[in-house]
Amino acid sequence: MSGGVIIGVRITHETASVDRIDDACRLDQRALVEDLLDREGVSEAFALQTCNRAEAYVVTPDPAVGRAALGTWAGDLGEAAVWTGHEESLRHLLRVAAGLESLVLGEDQIIGQVREAYTQARGVGALGGLLEDALLKAIHVGERARTETAINEGVVSLGSAAVSLVAADRDIEDATALVVGAGEMGTLAAQALSRHDLAELVVANRTRSRAEHVASELPIDAEARSLSALERSAADADVVIAATGSDEPVLDASLFVGECTVVDLAKPRDVDPRAGELEGVAVYDLDDLETVTDRTERTRAAAAREVETMIDEELDHLLEQFKRRQADDVISGMYEGAERTKRAEVTTAISKLESQGDLTDEQRETVEAMADALVGQLLSAPTRSLREAAAEDDWETINTAIQLFDPADDEDGEGPMAPRKGIGPEGSEIPPEVAARIEDD
Fold first, then answer.
1. Which pTM does this prediction carry?
2. Where is each Quinate/shikimate 5-dehydrogenase/glutamyl-tRNA reductase domain found (predicted)?
């Protein structure tokens, strides 16, 4: 029987530095899901890790159990951690897939990352009735947002704007590209470049491990190097995008050989100003990108409002689906358990009556009808209460009922209240006349 509540915790670019997010990813995505799934009370688990976020979700019988299960992972996050309850977690997942929570509003890469995380969690058996439907809904919303609105049109980050400017200046396909710097800006530039059919992509950074992390997150093969290799890297490059936090230029004019398009995203500059005087070397700076990004930001901000409305509608549908299913699961369990008990008692009663003399078919039908009536009358009130609880978002009542009618305590897993697929003769053992009463109540 599907039940429980979702609890989530995350750190993102809004609350933590890139290094802090890296520290939170000490377990890879799949390993974290498996670790969470092994914790007491956890029936489902999901994790999403990217350059700009580390998030984890569990389904447990109640919120306190969920917080305890996530606490061992989130314990080191401190004030950077953002905790979300059931409905907040659902809304956040929809927003993430739609691109509303990204560093670059509406960026496309995140929906692919959500799909991959979903596939990994599903592959280790970590998804059940709640997270499975939530993630499928999130992916659906992400797809709708990108096909029905302009949320991903144009370029809004300086990194993607730099690549757009390069593509306008020269043929970027089959080019050798170098990104200098593996912070937020460099990461976005590398991601934008990776969407082109490059001959080679190199990410160089003062700390090589950070460059390796950025390279490993890209959808294409990329090489990580330290800044000590800049002389060779710049000489081989057709395209260079620089975005470090250095106080002095890291790319001297003497490093550039032959034709090259260079975009300097840093302030102060990463590129020696004399590089622009070299024949065949085109150098662009932040001023060249401002107009492009301003126009796109306005377009995407308007689209974001449309996506917010879309999310409100889709979240309402998802919550209604959860409430209806959980209430119906419990009701189905109650009636099926009662039906099995009724059949056993009717069989015993008829056997005793037959030992006292033959019974006619009409008498047997009378006994059966009386038993059916008792079942319907006894369970009518709890059926109404559960449906009212579902309509009023009373998750506590529904989850209490789930625990009461959970068959897990029976050794063979087929206890008196074991659930079936649904209410009614199809997919369950409930007789049509009893199912009809459920639908009428």
1. 0.61
2. 171-292
Yes or no: say if 12 and 53 are a contact pair by the CB < 8 Å rule.
yes
Q: Which two tokens stand for residue 6?
A: 């979702």
Residue closest to 120 by CA, chosen among 4, 37, 204: 37
Q: How far apart are CA 233 and CA 208, in angstroms?
A: 14
Q: Name the DSSP class of 79.
A: G
Binding-site positions for substrate read: 50-53, 102, 107-109, 113
Region of 174 please: left (phi>0), alpha (psi -120 to 50) or beta: left
Q: Which residues are annotated as a binding site?
A: 50-53, 102, 107-109, 113, 181-186
Which residues are within 8 A (CB) of 24 and not within 5 positions of it... i.e. 6 or more apart?
Answer: 11, 16, 49, 54, 73, 76, 77
Distance CA(389)–CA(323), nearest Å, equals 9
**Beta partners for 201?**
177
Q: Which amino acid is at 170?
A: R
Residue 421: CA count within 13 A, CB half-sphere: 6
DSSP class of residue 363?
H
**Beta carbons of 43 and 60 less than 8 angstroms apart:** yes
Q: Which two tokens stand for residue 393?
A: 């978002």
Q: Sheet of 239-242: strands edge to edge?
A: 223-226, 200-205, 176-180, 239-242, 260-264, 281-284
Annotated binding site for NADP(+): 181-186
Count of other CB atoms within 10 angstroms of residue 325: 18
Per CATH, the homologous superfamily of domain 158-284 is: NAD(P)-binding Rossmann-like Domain (3.40.50.720)
How many CB atoms neighbour CB 407 within 10 A?
Answer: 17
- Structural domain boundaries in the chain: 5-148, 158-284, 326-440
Q: Is the pLDDT of residue 423 over 60?
A: no
Report, at the CATH architecture level, how domain 5-148 is classified.
Answer: 2-Layer Sandwich (3.30)
Catalytic residue numbers? Answer: 51
pLDDT tens digit string along 127-179? 998 999 999 999 999 999 999 999 988 766 678 889 988 998 899 999 999 99
Find out whether 243 and 186 touch, Cβ atoms under 8 Å: yes
Please compute the mean of the pLDDT values over residues 280-288 and round it to a whole number.
90
User: Tokens 């899901």 identify what position?
Assistant: 33
CA distance 120 to 97: 16
User: Side chain identity at 337, as an amino acid letter?
Assistant: G
CA–CA distance, 340 with 324 (Å, rounded to integer)? 24
Helix locations, 175-285, DSSP H = 184-193, 208-217, 230-236
